[in-house]
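Title: Comparing notes on inverse folding

I've been comparing how different people in this forum approach sequence design from structure. To keep things fair, I'm posting one structure and asking everyone to reply with a full sequence. Here's the target:
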């Protein structure tokens, strides 16, 4: 059975490219342009993995991850951060917030 992924990114071009790559790789991909939209999708269906941008308007990736980790339903859901902010301090912040992996943009789709 194909894995279900939730992709959260406010950049339409990147969102579409990553979605197309993952779907070509056999995954079922839901997309959200914001953490608020992603939260609503999470209420409807629990994905196997969440891939989230860090820098987004209103609610950023760290706040979204914190919201997920504070909810028992999503505590164990793996989360990968995608971000243009590839500094070591940013990666450490991501891991401290509870993300499972951290990829800096631009990244190779194979790496994902």
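Reply #1:
Here's my take.
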């Amino acid at each position: 059975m194909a894995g279900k992924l939730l992709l959260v990114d406010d950049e339409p071009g990147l969102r579409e490219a990553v979605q197309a790559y993952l779907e070509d790789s056999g995954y079922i991909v839901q997309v959200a342009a914001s953490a608020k939209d992603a939260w609503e999708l999470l209420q409807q269906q629990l994905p196997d993995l969440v891939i989230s941008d860090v820098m987004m308007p209103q609610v950023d990736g760290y706040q979204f991850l914190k919201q997920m980790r504070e909810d028992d339903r999503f505590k164990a859901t793996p989360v990968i951060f995608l971000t243009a902010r590839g500094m070591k301090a940013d990666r450490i912040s991501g891991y401290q917030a509870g993300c499972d992996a951290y990829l800096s943009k631009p990244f190779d789709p194979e790496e994902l």
